[in-house]
Predict the structure.
Amino acid sequence: MKCILGLFRPIILRKSRYNQHVTTGTTIIEVGATGNTLDQCVNSMKYLANVLAEVTK
C-alpha cells in the first residue's frame, strides 16, 4: 500500500483474529508503533476523528 501524504506506513495483513469476529462491522485501529512518538499518534487521531465523524453522520 502506498503512503497517503506520508500519514500512513505500509499495512501488514495477518490471519490473526483479535475478537473482531465476535460481531459484524467491527474493526481494529492501531495507532503508532515503536517508531512513533506520542505526539505523532495524537496528531494522527485528529485526522481519524474527523473522518469517523463524517462517515457516521
